[in-house]
Design a protein that fits this description.
309 residues, alpha/beta, three-stranded mixed sheet, 10 helices, 29% helix
Length: 309
């Protein structure tokens, strides 16, 4: 199954500009132009509106509050430290920024079992010894998964190491499809999920960002061979997070493509119509989160595929 109707999200309590991540994330504003308190209040309001819209559309959202200590300014992006799978496996991932490693919370995994009746059959922690070795794989930020066809798309970067990608794929039973993606200045794009989104029957991809023609063909050929309509976006649209989307379904089994207001506004009428052939479009304004976090709607959602116990 490619999509789930259950999403885990972390409500921020100390959201802020993370100075440990700006060097590798060109989507992130470099300096604060507002107070930390103002940023946190705005981010929390954006988060609450986003959760409300998901729930109104029939998506199940499990919300955990972040903790005041330790300080984790990027905790709003849980998909980087954990992923949940239909097999009952939970993967924990190595993070580049030291303060992002503090986001991994065993209490959340326990609560999913005790409070929500999910079965976690095993945990597989890639963070050791990877973090001490300086190599990283930041979850479904680093990997965009085609769960139906067991393919893991990954643009290699300081946060996405080929060795760990291959290790994860070997363990999870996926085929790695690795490539390089760069922005208009030639800098490595930090996460694959800002470059592309894979739905059940379509994929949104910034093909301009894949500079190598053979690698670009590798990606598009793989998507087309698995029955996906490839909908291309431009660099400018990617910079407005039009690649940072996630397909889910609601309690009635109806598919939805979730994105930010900025991403929706960046799409052309034709692109929206092509996407609406497959699913309704759900969007919410999260400008503060995008500006200071350098991530968007997809980054805020950790998909829960776990079986019930």
């Amino acid at each position: 199954m490619q999509t789930t109707n259950t999403i885990l999200m972390i409500r921020p309590v100390r959201f802020d500009l993370n100075e440990q991540t700006v060097a590798s994330n060109a989507f992130q504003q470099r300096t604060r132009t507002e107070s930390g308190e103002t940023i946190q209040q705005a981010a929390q309001a954006e988060f609450d509106t986003f959760v409300l819209r998901l729930r109104q559309a029939g998506v199940r959202v499990i919300v955990f509050d972040d903790t005041l200590e330790p300080a984790t300014p990027d905790s709003i992006f849980p998909n980087n430290w954990v992923s949940f799978h239909q097999s009952g496996l939970v993967y924990l991932y190595p993070m580049q920024a030291a303060n992002r490693r503090l986001e991994r919370r065993s209490d959340i995994l326990t609560a999913l079992q005790t409070d929500y009746n999910y079965a976690i059959k095993a945990q597989y922690d890639l963070s050791k010894p990877a973090e001490s070795e300086g190599i990283f794989l930041e979850g479904t930020g680093s990997m965009v998964l085609d769960r139906q066809h067991r393919s893991a798309y990954a643009c290699l970067s300081p946060r996405t190491h080929l060795q760990l990608l291959q290790q994860w794929c070997n363990h999870a039973g996926y085929t790695p499809i690795a490539f390089r993606a760069v922005d208009e200045q030639g800098q490595d794009i930090y996460h694959t999920n800002v470059v592309m989104c894979v739905g059940d029957r379509y994929a949104v991809v910034c093909t301009d960002a894949i500079a190598d023609a053979d690698e670009r063909k590798l990606v598009t050929d793989s998507l087309e061979a698995t029955g996906h309509e490839v909908i291309t976006i431009t660099w400018e649209q990617m910079n407005r997070f039009a690649g940072n989307m996630l397909q889910v379904h609601n309690q009635h089994g109806e598919p939805l493509l979730v994105m930010s207001q900025q991403a929706y506004d960046a799409l052309t009428t034709e692109q929206r119509q092509r996407l609406e052939k497959y699913n309704a479009l759900l969007y919410s304004p999260i400008p503060t989160i995008e500006r200071y976090g350098g991530g968007s709607a997809r980054c805020m959602m950790a998909e829960v595929f776990l079986p019930k116990s």
